[in-house]
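[Meeting: bench + compute handoff]

Bench side (C.D.) handed over the final construct sequence. Compute side (W.E.) agreed to return the predicted structure before the next meeting so the bench team could plan truncations. Sequence as handed over:
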Amino acid sequence: MSILIKICGMRDPDNIREMLTLNPDFMGFIFYSKSPRFVMSPESLQNIYFGQNTQKTGVFVNATEEEIMHTVKLYDLHAVQLHGEESVNLCRSLRKNGLLVLKAFQINSAEDFDATFEYNHQVDYFLFDTKSASYGGSGSKFDWSLLEAYKGDIPFFLSGGIGTDDVEAIQMINHPYFRGVDLNSRFEIAPAIKDYILLKQFIKKFNDYE
């Protein structure tokens, strides 16, 4: 099965257009004001053609449903990624509104997967990130061998400090519900500005392995 590619933390219109030529499956835009990659205005995404293959994804942290839906409509988002303590009811309601929902969990031990149980079949994907004091964006990896402890059946993305040197290790992951990788800080020139060459090299190596 082909692994999905999500490029996250985008903001600059020219950089967005450049990354879209790589045909990522998802592109993430962060609507959390404490993030250095915070999207501040709708102009960032106006007049950009995303095509049929890239899911425009908004990343939120403990926002209300009203705030999320307002942003979804303003930026014409297809999917949402929730990085805080969002409830099952919120996830369910967002899906009923036609959105694809990714729910993030910070992982440091096998027991951390217990938090996913109540979200089973209430979201489309989980995203497993490195445990940190902030909500993601640490640039560090967690111990991927812990993925063996995940016994759920919701497909998941792997996040947290993934870079160009990780292709072979990622290809060795044989969990039946591993579906994609979330690429962000290790591919940046500056916050929210991605290195086209690095991402192109990663995706090519990835495709060559598949």
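W.E. noted at the follow-up: The chain has a mean pLDDT of 92. C.D. will use this when planning the next construct.
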